[in-house]
UniProtKB/TrEMBL annotation:
Keywords: Cell membrane, Cell shape, Membrane, Peptidoglycan synthesis, Transmembrane, Transmembrane helix. The chain crosses the membrane at residues 54-72, 84-112, 124-146, 158-182, 194-217, 238-258, 278-300, 321-344, 356-377, 389-411, 417-440, 452-477, 489-513. It is a multi-pass membrane protein. This is Murein biosynthesis integral membrane protein MurJ. It is found in: Cell membrane. It comes from the Bacteria.
Length: 531
């Protein structure tokens, strides 16, 4: 377990720094292009989502779900898995290059598919950005492929730390844009130079993020060379497993396309594509820092337990991962809820826009805990090399996402459309968690999570009054009419004060409830700070 703790600390420390710098990146980007009612922001967000959506699904599905267990199995070979990884990388790079080329050719169709309801000038700007941003797909895929190979070889740090380089490059480029051209919220009047600076900056950061992983390749202990001999190493088996994750990619893309297309109609009226994206990034901040950093080392352990036929050890780690993730995520949820208005003000120009942003973020937060716990369950399926079952509960989730988005479009005014779509996404994630629990029980029997469920209830009992205290601090600082919502610096400082107050009360209440998980959480935080 100490190995899990050390690995989790390395990943969490890198993820924390990368997410903090990523937060700064997005604040600078919001300052350059705006958010609520900003056509330029919607166009840039749509263009960057095209490669990003595919990467997000591949990295959490095909690579994590199929490749990691296969590499662990291949490590038992005489060469330690070098031949398998060589073939995998060769095939992966070729496939990524072909896919990227096809995506660039299809850029006009992709922009129309995602942004059909955008104004003509916003569509045109999105297409110009897309030509600069779609090559990111190759480097996103390369980053995910190299990173998961390193993770499978227990080299966890570089994958978590390398995004910092991307954020630094992006911050510098966006600041140069502001210095040269000022704030550009309108989609009209953009020159090729302006498009090149924004789009080129975004892509250059991803290039550096991927290539820096090569500097750490020696730690994996693998000798890799181009290898086109693809027969006889189990690619057919991988193909069967990956077939289901490919279907998940298709299902997820269709759901995301419909969401983006529908909310695009609100681009000039209120929260739209950019606000959904920024709110999702804030929502994913604790998920990325906590769930991914804790879950990544656990996933390697779960795969090893399955490979060695140790079901009791698997259930023990499943329980431990749920408890550890739960104690952190409930605290993070309480802090974000208490400071939601100042957090939203950081990404918006006015207090009224902050209120609109906050409602979208609140709708997403409904699913923060369910999505966190579902991550562990899904990785347990992947550890069993079962990608078929996750496809079905992901399909159910995607259907609900589409249905709720269509309902929102039919009954809500444009200024509230983004809130309805975000809430539908959250409700779909809750249903997805319930299905994942039922199907995993059918697969491996009792999950042994009774103690973990009781622990999460304790965390929630502590989190609710902690959030109330944080909200009281927000009110004492003037609330929405006070300095904590009056400008960027006040929002940043006020949000930090409110969040810290919430977390202090949360920890005190956990201590009074004698939650045994608090000791593990404190030890984990010390490791992260030490790193």
């Amino acid at each position: 377990m100490s190995g899990i703790g050390r690995a989790g600390a390395v990943v969490a420390a890198g993820t924390l720094v990368s997410r903090v710098t990523g937060l700064v990146r997005n604040i600078v980007l919001a300052a350059a292009l705006g958010t609520v009612g900003a056509g330029a922001a919607d166009a840039f967000t749509l263009a960057t989502q095209l490669p990003n959506n595919i990467y997000a699904i591949i990295s959490s599905g095909l690579l994590a779900g199929v490749i990691v267990p296969q590499i662990i199995q291949a490590a038992k070979h005489r060469d330690g898995g070098s031949a398998f990884v060589s073939t995998l990388l060769t095939l992966g790079v070729i496939a990524l290059a072909v896919t990227t080329a096809l995506a660039v050719i299809a850029a006009p169709l992709l922009v129309i598919a995602y942004g059909d309801k955008l104004a003509p000038e916003t569509q045109a700007l999105a297409l110009a950005f897309a030509y600069w941003c779609l090559p990111q797909l190759l480097f996103y895929g390369l980053y995910a492929l190299l990173g998961e190979i390193l993770n499978a070889r227990r080299v966890f740090g570089p994958f978590a730390w390398s995004p910092i380089i991307n954020n630094v490059v992006s911050i510098a480029g966006f600041l140069v844009f502001i210095w040269m051209f000022g704030v550009r919220e309108d989609a009209a009047g953009w020159t090729p130079t302006m498009v090149a600076i924004m789009g080129g900056t975004a892509t250059l950061g991803i290039v550096f993020q991927a290539l820096v992983l090569l500097l750490f390749w020696r730690r994996a202990g693998l000798r890799v060379r181009p290898d086109f001999r693809w027969r006889g190493i189990g690619l057919r088996h991988i193909g069967r497993l990956a077939g289901w994750t490919f279907l998940m990619v298709v299902v997820g893309q269709i759901a995301g396309l419909i969401q983006t297309n529908i909310v695009g109609s609100a681009s000039s009226s209120g929260p739209s594509i950019a606000v959904l994206s920024y709110a999702w990034l804030v929502f994913m901040l604790p998920f990325s820092v906590i769930v991914l950093s804790i879950g990544t080392p656990y996933f390697t352990r779960l795969s090893e337990h399955v490979s060695a036929n140790r079901p009791d050890a698997l259930r023990a780690d499943l329980d431990s991962a749920t408890r550890t993730i739960g104690i952190f995520m409930v605290g993070a949820l309480a802090a974000i809820v208490a400071a939601i208005v100042p957090i939203s003000r950081v990404f918006t120009k006015t207090p009224d826009a902050a209120q609109a942003f906050a409602w979208v973020l609140a709708a997403y937060l409904v699913a923060l805990l369910p999505l966190s716990f579902q991550f562990v369950l899904q990785r347990t399926f992947y550890a069993h090399q079962d990608t078929r079952t996750p496809f079905f509960f992901t399909l159910a989730q995607a259907v609900l996402v589409v249905v709720t988005a269509l309902i929102a479009a039919a009954i809500l005014p444009l200024e509230h459309l983004a809130v309805g779509i975000a809430l539908g996404q959250s409700l779909a994630n809750v249903v997805q968690l319930a299905l994942a629990v039922i199907l995993l029980r059918r697969k491996i029997g009792p999950l042994g999570l009774g103690g973990a469920v009781r622990a999460v209830v304790r965390f929630v009992v502590a989190g609710i009054p902690a959030a109330a205290v944080g909200w009281l601090v927000f009110a004492l600082l003037g609330g929405s009419a006070g300095w904590v919502a009056g400008g960027y610096l006040g929002a940043l400082f006020g949000g930090a004060v409110i969040g810290l107050a919430t977390l202090v009360v949360y920890v005190i209440l956990l201590a009074l409830l004698r939650a045994p998980e608090l000791t593990t959480a404190v030890r984990t935080v010390r490791r992260i700070l030490g790193r």
